[in-house]
Amino acid sequence: MFVVVNRFKVLPHKEADFRRRWLDRDVLLDTVPGFLIIQFLKGGTYPDHVAYASHASWASREAFEAWRGSDLFQTAHKDAGKGESLTLGKREFSAYEVLRTVEGLEEAA
């Protein structure tokens, strides 16, 4: 499994716009081979920003790279970076190979 994380430092006065951008848009991943799940996360509030992140799991690095090189990726990200900035600086991207997974007995809410 391969996990991709994007972290955002959202300007407090732009938080509502940022949330709308992420929560109201069409997610085009559900038909992509190798895509497993994406989660949109809200973290702590700080004096100059509110922490947000996206966390996506893929069956493999190859599946993720195929998505990144696809026309569908270009369509999904065609407006990225356009318009007024909602964040403090650029997003922070990181990617990880999963080495071990431990699952609990409870189902996620």
Please report the distance between the alpha carbons of the first and last residues: 22 Å
Count of folded domains: 1
Any idea what the shape is? globular
Instruction: State the CATH topology.
Output: Alpha-Beta Plaits
Question: Which strand order does the major sheet show?
Answer: 2-3-1-4
Strands, total number: 4
Largest sheet: 4 strands, antiparallel
CATH class: Alpha Beta
Overall CATH architecture: 2-Layer Sandwich
Structural class by SSE content: alpha+beta
Instruction: Detail the poorly predicted runs.
Output: none
Report the order of strands and helices.
EHEEHHE
From the alpha-carbon coordinates, what is the Rg to the nearest angstrom? 15 Å
What proportion of the residues form beta strands (DSSP E)? 25-35%
Number of helices: 3
- Can you give the helix content as a percent range? 10-25%
Q: What is the mean predicted local confidence, pLDDT?
A: 90
Describe the overall structure:
With 109 residues, the protein is of the alpha+beta class. It has a single domain (2-97), classed as Alpha-Beta Plaits. The protein has 3 helices and 4 strands; from the N terminus they run E-H-E-E-H-H-E. It has a 4-stranded antiparallel sheet. Strand 2 (35-45) and strand 3 form a beta hairpin. The two termini are 22 Å apart. The mean pLDDT is 90.
How is this structure best summarized?
By secondary structure, the protein is an alpha+beta fold. It has helices at 15-23, 61-68, 71-76, and strands at residues 2-10, 35-45, 50-58, 92-97.
